[in-house]
Amino acid sequence: MYFHPALLFALVATLAYISVRRFIVRRQFTLRHGCQPVARASNKEPLLGLDTIPGTIRALRQHKILERTSELFRVHGTTFTVKELQRRAIVTIEPENIKTILSIKFKDYGISHRLEAFRPLLGEGIFDTDGDHWAASRALIRPSFTREQVADLTCLEELIQDFFALLPRDGKTVVDLQELFFRYTIDSATDFLFGESIGTLKKTDSEPGFAEAFHYAQKAVIVRGMLGPLNYFYRDRKADECNRMCREFAQRFVDEAFNAAETKKEGHDSQEQQSESKRKRIFSHELAWRTSDRRRVLDEMMNVLLAGRDTTASLLSNLFFMLAKSPDIWAKLRREVTSLEGREPTYEQLRSLKYVQSCINESLRLHPVVPRNERQAVCDTVLPLGGGPDGLFPVFVPKGTLVSYSLYALHRRTDIYGADAHEFRPERWMDGTLRPKWGYLPFNGGPRICIGQQYALTEVGYVLVRMVQELKGVIGQNQGPWEESLALTVCVRGGVPVVLVPDEKGEIQ
Ligand code: HEM
Ligand SMILES: *[C@@H]1O[C@H](CO)[C@@H](O)[C@H](O)[C@H]1NC(C)=O
Prior knowledge:
Cofactor: heme
Oligomer: single chain
Distance between the termini: 84 Å
Organism: Aspergillus keveii
Bound molecules: protoporphyrin IX containing FE, 2-acetamido-2-deoxy-beta-D-glucopyranose
Number of strands: 13
Number of helices: 20
Radius of gyration: 25 Å
Shape: globular
Keywords: Heme, Iron, Metal-binding, Monooxygenase, Oxidoreductase
């Protein structure tokens, strides 16, 4: 190839001009905001940042990735930069910084780097888009999470009966609660979203179906996320097949929802409409009523299914893992629910059971089911803390930088929670003086705060209270400490094997 020298010169000069200009603009920006350099997790091998990889692999093998991150914060302070495989990221557990990313400077950050990994399963919806597309998703979905919707406990009770039917009550058979919780939440999520539960708790055969395909499809999301740009070369036929299966499965309900919406719009069957208002409301039907875009409804349903299912099951599992180690806490829960006199709790009663709520808060603190998260800067911006030798100055964040935050490490800060921050102690929530604000973010904060928070807390509270009413004791069979099973959410490695001690009246089935 031949370049005229003048052309070459012009090219080099332009590139030089662009980078010098950018340097000057950024330098001015840095000065204007009083930014100072941020601590670095040392890279002895600065070119690719490979020196941290052995430690990561060791932590992976020991199932201590979350602990390793906490350790790094103890060594390098509460905000520092890391570089792994040429990707530079700022990591932080400063509440002020997290508040800045999620709320104050919400518009400076995005999540569209997630889209490539999620799209084959989710399409484009609330969980993997930014800007106007995201805002439209949120507006579409939000009205389906009204209080009356969330307070409908009928389905939760029906499913708890299926769940109870699977519990051994001989006081010696070991059962894995985690496995059952994942079945409970997929049954309730499909009922809420599709209007019809897929009934995995009722099934006796283990024929692979939607739940298994959905599980595999999620694993593939993580692989694609880790590969980043290399994704282009990655093919997984089984994942393609699972994505197709899940989406086709949901498509049936979308079609049905649009048929229902059309009949309703044409004003047919007014009789059915009347009984409709008394019957439960179905997510897919509501979306079909609000938009005519079938693809959009399918995508949003997949998004909400992903956001809502494993999260709730993981919370139940992490919570019960700790409860099964703490007979005192179980006894205290038993005393609290006696106020219900054996009746099923209402929505209001659930809210008023303080110790129940404290146990849930404490599980989400010690084992936040979304244990880490990140945002990517979409423009040059600034974080209030982390710069300078003691981290008290602002930090410059160039466009494209990933800013990650660890809820796992944040929730264990002793300056927020006290010297016993590493212990499971629900009592810390009881007197109402613990107000951690941006130091406690199990459901995230700001405009993208979890839409399903009340729904999830209701479901988890309901299952917990019904279990406490039903069982005198839950005896954990795993003697070791809690270990992470880390995917998009974190649950318990090895599951939650327990032996159940039935209440006198409930024994021998
Ligand atoms: C214990 C249970 C749950 C936890 C800990 C949890 C946590 C979270 C977190 C941390 C986010 C923020 C993700 C991000 O922006 O990066 C989120 C978003 C979301 N959650 Fe939940 N979630 C739970 C249950 C649910 C349930 C049951 C539903 C629905 C039925 C749900 C629906 C959503 C949706 C739609 C979003 C996206 C909101 C947006 O980006 O505007 N979540 N959740
Ligand atoms: C649980 O945590 C939330 C969020 O910080 C708080 O609003 C609520 O009062 C807490 N519940 C209890 C029982 O302390």
